[in-house]
Hints:
Number of strands: 9
Structural class: alpha+beta
Oligomer: single chain
Number of domains: 1
Low-confidence stretches: 4-22
Shape: globular
Number of helices: 3
Largest sheet: 9 strands, antiparallel
Radius of gyration: 20 Å
Helix content: 10-25%
Order of helices and strands: HHEEHEEEEEEE
Amino acid sequence: MKQAVFIVWIVVVLSSCETTRRDKKYYYPLDSILTEQVQYLMLSHATLSKKASIDGKEEATFFVPKDTTRWKYELDVFAELNDINKPANVGKYHTKKGLKDSNSNLLIYTIESTETLPVVFLKVYYLDNLSNIRKIEGLYREESSLLQSSRHLSMEFEKINNKIVLTSYSIKGGQKMLLGDSVQFTVTGIVTLP
């Protein structure tokens, strides 16, 4: 009987450790922020005005994403920045909190890679405390034998009705194929609440 109780106790302890390890956000919970924004924007019936430019050719669209799948698709590129939280990246980033932004009254939490990693840096601009975010920006780079690409990603937030809400975003970058031309692109989105 004692042996069975001990085995059950070991199983419970080990499974709770595994859950804790899986749920831990090592550097910054970007995935949670994106999930919250997707839900809020969908429930608020927010509209999206988007402009895209590829090598100088522009296209503009205006629409109301009808469900969370569409909002998730629109913001999916920012999920790449969450690579900082992969267990394999623990200890591969240097962090600084409370840095003053020279262009505003905001503070900055910086996460910078100490090795060659896809997420070069992530900066969170906030007012007073880290949950009161105003801007998130990061640089994502990919390199392989066939392709080199980089994307500077930025999201801006405002406090609306006591809730932090995404109000705009931008993606600027370029891509070069091994035997092809390079392509430059920008995407900007403006989110409007009804």
